[in-house]
Amino acid sequence: xxxxxxxxxxxxxxxxxxxxxxxxxxxxxxxxxxxxxxxVQDEAGKALAADLGxxxxxxxxxxxxREEDIAxxxxxxxxxxxxxxxxxANAGVMGALGPIARTRTExxxxxxxVNLRGVLLSMKHAAAVMQPRGRGxxxxxxxxxxxxGGVGAHTYSATKAGIIGLVQSVxxxxxxxxxxxxxxxxxxxVSAMTADILTGDAQDTTKAHSILAxxxxxxxxxxxEDIAxxAAFLASDDATFVTGSTFxxxxxxxxxxxxxxxxxGDWAEPTGMFEGGRRTRS
Length: 282
What we know:
Layout: E1 10-14, H1 19-30, E2 34-39, H2 42-52, E3 57-61, H3 67-81, E4 86-89, H4 105-133, E5 136-141, H5 154-174, E6 179-186, H6 192-199, H7 205-215, H8 224-235, E7 246-249, E8 271-273, E9 279-281
Parallel strand pairs: 1-2, 1-4, 2-3, 4-5, 5-6, 6-7
Antiparallel strand pairs: 8-9
Helix pairs in contact: 1-8, 3-4, 4-5, 6-7
């Protein structure tokens, strides 16, 4: 880790009272940033801000489906810490579940309001501060469900795909003004949301870790700190040539899901397969 990469930077992180957001807030502070912890989980958010330290972090209640809450989070960053360098639109919900033919419209609308509209409005208010200053970083959390069918709920998948399109579009607009915009795609991460899905208990991250470990494609399941490390890189000057990109932090789940069948079993020894069944072997 490059200590101080974010020294003097100010960040707003939505959905940062727990999970990926909380780990990112901690990582940003470790690297020198001041952070606005923005969430709807008031007790957890206030506790995290207090733990990070007075003068370093502050908590604001922020429901990203409400534009005024997003605007207030940005205003807090400017009024408390003097500016806004990074906005990480991380807040999201699984939202509407069930078969497409029986989808509850109100649940779908609420999911879109948080997962996609909330990201768009976050970019709107972040850009309003960053563009005049000629610098800034906007990040947004997507999902493998944006690119792989059948691994996420329908509305959730649509919103996460929308985030990738939104990131690319906004990156193109803001690039001339020095503002970078990128998406992060976490794999199955040990978090409260994952625990709720896997165990029915959002607090049972221990059991969730065990379940994910059994199916992990790498040597361990992903943890929030993996995503925080990627976010810190993208927020730093180490990534000044990176914009409009989608970073997969998923242990290869999205881009390398196979287990390389032609390098094991009958194919463990080097072989060439050519016309008419002809083979070459070393």
